[in-house]
Amino acid sequence: MGTPIVLSESMTPVEPLCSWFRELSLDRRSVKTMRAYAYTTTMLLRFLLARGADLTSATETDLQEFRRWRLDDAEQTISEAAWDRDAAAIGSLYDFLVRRGMIARRPWRATGRGRRSLSTGVSRDLRVRHMGLEQYLFLRDVGFGGLAASAGLDERFRGWRPHRNRAACELALLTGMRIQEWSTVLLPELGLLGDGQARAVEFELGACAKFGRPRRVYVPADAAELLGPYLLLERPEIVAKAQSVLRRRRRELFVVTRLEADGAKVRGLLDGAVVTRSVRGMDPRLRRLAVLETGDGLDPLALFVGTGGRMLTASGWDRVRWAAWDRMRAQAGDGQAGLLPGRCWVFHDLRHTFALRLLIYLTELALQELQRRGASMATLLEHMSGNPLLQVQRRLGHASPATTYRYIRYLKDPMRDVAQAFRAWTVAGGATYAEIARHALDGQADAPQR
Known about the structure:
The protein has about 450 residues and is α+β, with helices and mostly antiparallel strands. It folds into three domains: about 15-115, Tyrosine recombinase, N-terminal domain (DNA polymerase, domain 1, Orthogonal Bundle), CATH 1.10.150; about 130-155 and about 335-450, no CATH class; about 185-310, no CATH class. Helix content is about 45%, strand content about 10%. A five-stranded mixed β-sheet has the order 5-4-3-6-7.
């Protein structure tokens, strides 16, 4: 759903755009992103055709002229920030053309420091929108969980799968993962194919991480515990109802018959051949197809599943998010206006909240340690290894410390004392940042304790 289809005047699909949009859909790009990409690239195609060129024959001059037209001469000109978003769409399209062998390389040159000349090269501020504890609990329990604003059971709630949605919200917050990361997690990565007991676990992100950049993710006990009701009550029902669909699609699926290397690898039938795949190396498309042959039926390997036993797409989670937003707006009464921002929360706001709260907590720990030992006793090496910014950068998988550095301006909480505010998160249940911080700081499991 939400995949653009570009048709010519003769009502035939326009290639390579349609194939590109199909790949974006399989990669779980959101409907909003694909709509924006479709607008940009169809406009580019019309511009090139008017110049006697097309997407595969366009030169750097053609694309620079398109940029100039968009910024200065079009009927509705755009800002440089908007052009950078257009440039991202064009870059993604031409990367697709290179992968398909339709062109040898991007038609524009790289400039200094690897920057592509098509974009403006202007580094813009990261917009950080984070939640307070009350806002988060209102989102998780009322919006996603269907409770009343008073925290009691709302008998009028007719939403779908509240346990799954609350667990997803908690997993996103307490791990700091991006939506394309937490929504594609598989059961073996959380150790949930053995006794099924949810517990704290650490695993490595691979193909589903941004740019495929690997990093370790720690799932604390609170996040794992909230998975329990979903795994016990909702997921078995979803999977049971999906059996007829899964059996009918069996030839299209990756039917896993055996787990190897303690769940790090899976072996099964894919496209008629027996293959072995590293779980870490499985991309979102393959993860959507992976099901386990249990003897009693087919069980999707995906943690979060929806209708038909399929992994929820980004657009599916968007529908869940907007339904939660509508519910929160209806539930927010007098004295609760501060629980809602001016516009709908997005899942990435949970990642920002994770980063900021963990940074605050680690900073507090560092200050306490310095006070305990005296500043003169802290060596340069100890300072570097315990640097809160570096720890948060590692946990978030930021390529550059400059991205993490932008959170510093939010360290000062204008509403209350920082230490007290953060202490509230660690004792309220569902946000055990002290536990997360220990894993962020230890570096390795066998590090000596001091």
